[in-house]
Design goal:
six-stranded antiparallel beta sheet, alpha/beta, binds 5'-O-[(L-methionyl)-sulphamoyl]adenosine, seven-stranded parallel beta sheet, 21 helices
Length: 649
């Protein structure tokens, strides 16, 4: 009988690039919880997926010379195959480009607009025209665009806003009345003190500066801006529709828990509940914010060859070892770290020594002493009590820890049971019992206790390492693997024969492993170099056609006058004779390298059909060409022998 429904989700991953192992932590953690709940008899629905819209995707695709859809199709399928490789049991993989999702997001937007929760206004900020981006004062670098270093100017863009402020009180009340809504406690404090108490600002929920997104269907040119699109996945994926939701939605919503990283707890505990309040839908029961998995001391980069990907790790260590490492190494609230050294260390000590040896020794002894037969446990001694109690109490412990999503502690509790079993072998010394014919019953009982404890380990470890659990159950030859079978000690049937003893985890030779890792890193570096070359080609000259080049008008012009611009240290104001008869004024950022007297009388190349731009109060009509000869060495291209106004082709 089902214990009830349990709807669990991960955040949906951005499809900018192939995710590294840190990005994969969340799906494995969520999978462990989903598997545990299923084991306990819950009717689980587990959703994950990809977040595919936005300006960044549009830009990446453009640079690669493909359409945004082609780009997201590729990355989304890479992400999905990593989820599959890691043996995660999601029930639904949603993509924000799914037509059903897009349609419902449009309806949600419209509904919120029609009921007055979304209103049209202006987005104001400092705008960089070439980058088509708004910035706030604090984001600027030296007062310039942080991306391209050019001037920004105050600008306004028409946009829709969501009235978060209207729901502030209602949200505060919900958080107060549902003490486990934001979890763990430390994240809750952070949200309340840093974001909710200072007061909520209305949220900009549409953009007109890019195209790759869900269009606002009643106002052409507006695109639904990321969070309304992304967060809605949790309900569109199970059939929410403002015009009438599916049975599946009615069954599973509200979510029991959203598992998300610490950086996006804010969106899930402020924007998301408010969106749901506005839609009149129930709120998720819990949002759990996990920390991040970082990479040793070093920053990861492909060109350094130190990016760690799930597929490489699986190839080197196997799926379950990777799952084990991720789940056991991550602290509860502070960030975790991953290094090859610690992976090897934990693999050898926990998996090969503690768990692998236990199963191997026990199954081998059963085969050796009883030809594999599982004996009845009728020769009990006091020393057995502690082992049996540990097995039973581990079930309770794991349950309590899972309830708080203390995953690494839960896995440690199971490993402690395995350690307790190893200690029991030392205490009972089966090899000594085997020498005494009178102790045969006792030996049978000792081995039974070990095999039964190993069964507990296998069942409890199945959410973390499903293949290993199956392999253990196969070796001890039992199909008694339900959660309920752990309510008492003794579920393993005597009379059956155990299978063959097969090592679960072969010990890793660190030296050999590092040689393999080095090879992988070399390959990664080589690939990064290839990518860089490709990027140079796509971003540079190779990608424009002659017709594009023909659009640029280049002329020879003589510098007649030159003076510094008071408000801008980097700029010089040049007066040019370009043969047209009208002096041309150009502001040029070369003050660091040239004084007016170095320039007057020389001839330069000017881009003469550049749109005028006002730079620090000077209207600039063009740009002169210069070369970056070295870092911090800019040289103007002089063409003194040429005729003023001559066109350069
Ligand atoms: N697309 C948004 C989420 C929208 S949910 C409606 C997003 N995507 S992401 O790809 O950047 O991150 C996906 C999840 O992975 C987030 O929960 C994020 O916190 C988590 N992680 C990203 N880097 C991580 C680590 N290095 N370690 C652990 N989790 C990490 O945010």
């Amino acid at each position: 009988m089902s214990k009830g429904k349990f709807y669990i989700t991960t955040a949906i991953a951005y499809t900018s690039r192939k995710p590294h192992i840190g990005n994969s932590y969340e799906i494995v953690m969520t999978d462990a919880i989903a598997r545990y709940k299923r084991l306990q008899g819950y009717d689980v629905f587990f959703q994950t997926g990809t977040d595919e819209h936005g300006q960044k995707i549009e830009e990446i695709a453009k640079a690669a010379g493909i359409t945004p859809k082609e780009h997201v199709d590729k990355v989304s399928s890479e992400i999905k195959s990593i989820c599959d490789l890691l043996n995660t049991t999601y029930d639904k993989f949603i993509r924000t480009t799914d037509p059903q999702h897009e349609k419902v997001v449009q309806k949600i937007f419209k509904k919120l607009y029609e009921q007055g929760d979304i209103y049209k206004s202006h987005y104001e900020g400092l705008y960089c025209t070439p980058c088509e981006s708004f910035w706030t004062e604090s984001q600027l670098v030296d007062g310039k665009c942080p991306d391209c270093g050019r001037e920004v100017k105050p600008a306004k863009e028409e946009a829709y806003f969501f009235k978060l402020s209207k729901y502030q009180k209602q949200l505060e009340k919900y958080i107060e009345e549902n003490e486990n809504f934001i979890y763990p406690e430390s994240r809750k404090k952070e949200m309340i003190n840093n974001f909710i108490k200072p007061g909520l600002q209305d949220l900009c929920v549409s953009r007109t500066s890019f195209k790759w997104g869900i269009p606002v269907d009643f106002d052409e040119g507006h695109i639904v801006y990321v969070w309304i699109d992304a967060l809605s996945n949790y309900i569109t994926g199970i059939g929410y529709d403002p015009d009438g939701s599916s049975e599946q939605y009615k069954k599973y919503w509200p979510a029991d828990v959203h598992i998300v990283g610490k950086d996006i707890v804010r969106f899930h505990t402020i924007y998301w509940p408010i969106m749901l309040m506005a839609l009149g839908e129930p709120l998720p029961k819990q949002v759990f914010g996990h920390p991040w998995l970082l990479f040793g001391e070093d920053k990861m980069s492909k060109s350094r060859g130190n990016v760690i990907y799930a597929d490489d790790l699986v190839e080197l260590f196997g799926v379950d070892a990777v799952r084990y490492y991720l789940l056991s190494e991550m602290p509860y609230t502070s960030d975790g770290s991953i290094t090859y050294e610690t992976i090897i260390e934990r693999y050898n000590s926990d998996l090969a020594n503690t768990l692998g040896n236990l199963v191997n020794r026990t199954v081998a002894m059963s085969n050796k002493y009883f030809d594999g037969a599982i004996m009845p446990s009728n020769a009990k001694e006091d020393v057995d009590d502690d082992l049996i109690n540990t097995a039973l109490s581990t079930v309770e412990k794991v349950d309590k820890l899972f309830a708080e999503y203390r995953i690494s502690d839960a896995i440690e509790a199971v490993m402690n049971l395995a350690k307790r079993c190893n200690k029991y072998i030392d205490e009972t010394m089966p090899w000594a019992l085997a020498k005494d014919e009178d102790k045969r019953d006792r030996l049978g009982t000792v081995l039974y206790n070990l095999l039964e404890s190993i069964r507990f380990v296998a069942v409890l470890i199945s959410p973390f390492m499903p293949d290993t659990a199956n392999s253990i159950l196969k070796q001890i030859n039992t199909d008694v693997d339900s959660y309920d079978s752990l309510s008492s000690f003794g579920g393993l049937k005597s009379g059956n024969k155990v299978g063959e003893a097969k090592p679960l985890f072969a010990r890793i030779d660190a030296k050999e492993m590092f040689a393999k890792i080095e090879e992988k890193q070399k390959a990664q570096k080589a690939e990064a170099e290839k990518d860089d070359k490709k990027e140079e080609k796509t971003e540079g000259i190779a990608q424009i056609g002659i017709e594009d080049f023909a659009k640029v008008e280049l002329k020879v012009a003589e510098i007649k006058d030159c003076e510094p611009i008071k408000r801008a240290k980097k700029l010089l104001k040049l007066t040019l004779d370009d043969g047209s008869g009208t002096p041309r004024i150009v502001a040029s950022g070369i003050a660091k390298w040239y004084k007016p007297e170095d320039l007057i009388g020389h001839k330069v190349i000017v881009v003469s059909n550049l749109k005028p731009a006002v730079l620090c109060g000077v209207e600039s009509n063009g740009m002169i060409l210069a070369a970056d000869c070295a870092e911090d060495d800019v040289q103007v291209i002089f063409v003194d022998s040429m005729t003023n106004g001559a066109k350069i082709r």
